[in-house]
Design a protein that fits this description.
Elements (H helix, E strand, L loop, with lengths): L4 E5 L6 H11 L5 E5 L32 H10 L4 E4 H5 L3 H9 L3 E5 L5 E3 L5 H9 L3 E3 L6 E3 L3 H4 L10 H8 L3 E3 L3 E3 L2 E4 L2 E4 L3 H4 L3 E6 L6 H8 L4 E3 L10 H6 L1 E3 L13 H6 L2 H18 L6 E4 L47 E4 L7 H9 L6 H13 L11 E5 L2 H11 L8
Helix pairs in contact: 2-4, 14-15
Length: 426
């Protein structure tokens, strides 16, 4: 087990990923697992070679000898090869693979914050309250872990795959479900939030753990690791010169705030219930800003919640569909998910329009806060905005981008960051 989780937290444009990849290349006697958000970062293209594959790492594949990528990854560990995989695949690893990672002394390098905790949606809080009031589950006072305590007789129905709570029961048995501190009226439970967590063994198993990120302090990952008892320190094996904030800000042309949007909160809850009039205001803002830029649609990116785009499976909600700026001439969407990270695919984009007031999910925030670890919601919002913005041309050396922000809160937070008021003190 690593004594510390080592944090490499620097402003985008500081070449921290390139520096870490060079560090791994310069120390070939070690075994590494390099974990990234997106599969396309692990694939060669006509334009470029994957940086990590170019130094001899292998990415797991399914098909042929191995039915699943997890099987292939286990085999690669057996052979002691250095591996590159996605966040999703790494979080799915079996106990036997995690043990092998530990036995073989792998160094784990995580590029961008990995979601080890998330809201749980396979059952409702009311379902958990029902199980609590029936005496089938218990909740730990230490960290809110939900444990199954039902007798063999009362448990038997839940073991049937046809039972509506079978999946929920399995997740509880696997120690994946945690909850905020519960509220009781008399002897009855009333309300709570649920989250799902990946076992801490995904971190515990490695000889060393390095996280590449920005604005780490009081982030969701920072709070989660501290809750689980992990200690952190700055990664110091390589010397990284942080990009100048003033230089980065000078290459971002922030458009003046449009006061027509000042009454639109643009938070998740606002978007869920926004009127057709409000949706039209946002749509017109995106279209108006895009037209004034004089750019081709393919050079423009904008974001709103996915449920409000034409690509959503939810057909009931009115969609944001700015005429002439829904897709580029190549058919690629102008909409880029607000959670997009770690890809060069959109580095040609010269105009970025952000219309989403970002907060940590209320269940995750409430859970961590209940157990003494408060996520900095403003840092979270700025980090999410910047991660999205740095998919654009600003990520390129001397690249530039014009930025329009629809949320008044997000606009003001950006100005605070640009003035050096929001930063890491790691």
């Amino acid at each position: 087990m690593a004594e510390y989780v080592e944090i490499c937290s620097y402003l985008m444009g500081s070449s921290k990923t390139n520096s870490i990849i060079k560090w791994m290349s310069d120390n070939p006697d070690e075994r590494y697992i390099y974990v990234v958000p997106n599969l396309n970062e692990l694939q060669d293209s006509e334009d470029s070679t994957s940086r990590v594959l170019s130094i001899g790492f292998t990415t797991p594949e399914s098909g042929g000898e191995f039915k699943t990528k997890s099987e292939h990854l286990y085999n690669l560990c057996l052979r002691g090869e250095s591996i590159a995989c996605t966040h999703v695949l790494y979080k799915m690893l079996s106990d036997s693979t995690l043990k092998l990672i530990k036995d073989r002394g792998y160094i784990l390098v995580i590029d961008e914050e990995v979601a080890l905790i998330d809201t749980y949606t396979s059952a409702s809080p009311a379902d958990l309250v029902s199980l609590l009031n029936s005496g089938l589950v218990d909740i730990s006072d230490e960290d809110g872990m939900v444990s199954w305590i039902g007798s063999a007789e009362s448990t038997e129905p839940y073991e049937e795959t046809s039972h509506k709570f079978h999946r929920f029961y399995k997740h509880i048995k696997n120690e994946n479900i945690y909850t905020t501190r519960q509220i009781k009226t008399g002897d009855k439970y009333k309300s709570l939030f649920m989250v799902s967590q990946i076992t801490k063994e995904v971190i515990d198993c490695a000889k060393r753990v390095v996280v590449i990120t920005y604005l780490y302090q009081n982030s969701v990952l920072d709070c989660f690791l501290r809750l689980k008892g992990f200690k952190t320190k700055r990664f110091s094996d390589v010397s990284i010169k942080e990009a100048s904030l003033s230089d980065v800000v000078s290459r971002i042309n922030l458009l003046p705030y449009d006061d027509k949007l000042s009454k639109l909160k643009m938070s998740s809850s606002w978007w869920n219930s926004a009127s057709s009039k409000d949706i039209k205001l946002v749509e017109n803002f995106i279209r108006r800003t895009s037209r004034r830029s004089g750019l081709e649609s393919g050079d423009i990116m904008w974001t709103v919640p996915s449920s409000r785009t034409k690509w959503s499976l939810n057909k009931k909600k009115m969609k944001v569909s700015p005429q002439s700026f829904v897709e580029g001439s190549d058919g690629e969407p102008c909409w880029i998910a607000c959670t997009m990270k770690a890809t060069n695919r959109y580095s040609h984009k010269k105009l970025a329009i952000h219309c989403f007031n970002r907060y940590p999910h209320v269940a995750v925030y409430s859970y961590l806060n209940d157990y003494g670890y408060q996520v900095d919601q403003d840092k979270y919002a700025v980090a999410e905005l910047l991660q999205w913005l740095f998919r654009s041309n600003i990520r390129m050396p001397n690249g530039e981008v014009t930025l329009a922000i629809g949320s008044k809160r997000m606009y003001n937070l950006y100005l605070m960051w640009a003035n050096g008021e929001i930063k890491d003190d790691l």
